[in-house]
Amino acid sequence: MSEAAEKLAAVRAVITQAARSSGRTADAVRLVAVSKTQSVDAVRALLDAGQTDFGESQVQDAMRKIPLLNGLGLHWHFIGHLQSNKTRFIPGNFEWVHTLEKEKHAARIAQAAQQAGVCVKLLLQVNVANDPAKQGLHSNEVFAFIERILEQQLAGIQLRGLMSIGRRGAGEPETRATFAGLRELLESCRQRFGGEFDQLSMGMSNDYAIAIEEGATMVRVGTDLFGARK
Ligand SMILES: *Cc1c(COP(=O)(O)O)cnc(C)c1O
User: Fold this and answer.
1) Alpha helices (H) in 83-160, listed in sequence order
2) Nearest partner of 156 among 100, 106, 85, judged by Cα
3) 135 CA to middle of ligand 1, Å?
4) Atom of ligand 1 nearest to the CA of 223
């Protein structure tokens, strides 16, 4: 087994175990391999091992890699801080954006998506813990934000759920509470806005097992799959 395949198998084993303890199976959780700063060869090694979802946090860096891996069935997720002048590069390159936090970005992505003839799936980044060091909407802003986007009836985008980042250095109880809070917020969104709100992106290398136990449908794992970033 290649080193990449071994790392992937280890992460998948953790996912299977954590999914089971939340009464689900591993296929209810999508593993997004966070390949930011990693080489195309490193992505290819994981792809050869069977991994197809990859996450990038810088549009420019991603756009060097994505064309080189074209036609191989990869699904790209944008997980970084969105900038207005980069939104037009999202459609056609990324299927998912996990980090929407500005209304105008939804409209810009929608417009570019229509031109490209694609649909981009969006998650709202929520700062559940109201951590001043974090990006994202506060929990109490989420409903109004969604309402304003839905009102515009934008073609080319689909709001699908919520994303959050656990506080670095937080202990397990705090991490668990943060993730449970996001799950409750998603449930409220689903009651209010309908079944399309079905995605919960939470959990990174240091806390993805906890995130899955608390209901994550997507985990974003970099270090545990690729090793430490340079
Ligand atoms: C870098 C990054 C990750 C992956 O972090 P690891 O600790 O390496 O697993 C996940 N989510 C976001 C938003 C990131 O920026």
Assistant:
1) 103-116, 142-151
2) 106
3) 14
4) 8
Distance 34 CA to ligand 1 centre (A): 6
Of residues 46, 81, 207, the one with CA closest to residue 54? 46
- For the chain, the average pLDDT equals 96
pLDDT tens digits, 120-135: 999 999 998 777 778 8
Separation of alpha carbons 185 and 128, rounded Å: 9
Ligand 1, atom 4, lies closest to the CA of 222
Tell me how far apart the alpha carbons of residues 14 and 163 are, in angstroms, rounded to a whole number. 20
Contact (Cβ atoms closer than 8 angstroms) between residue 199 and residue 7: no
What pLDDT, on a 0 to 100 scale, did the predictor assign at position 195?
A: 87
Say if CB 142 and CB 104 are below 8 A apart: no
Does residue 203's CB lie within 6 angstroms of at least one atom of ligand 1? Answer: no
Which regions in the chain score pLDDT beneath 70?
A: none
Residue 133's pLDDT is 74
pLDDT score at 60: 93
Amino acid at 91: P
Distance 98 CA to ligand 1 centre (A): 12
- Ligand 1 atom with the smallest distance to the CA of 36 is 1
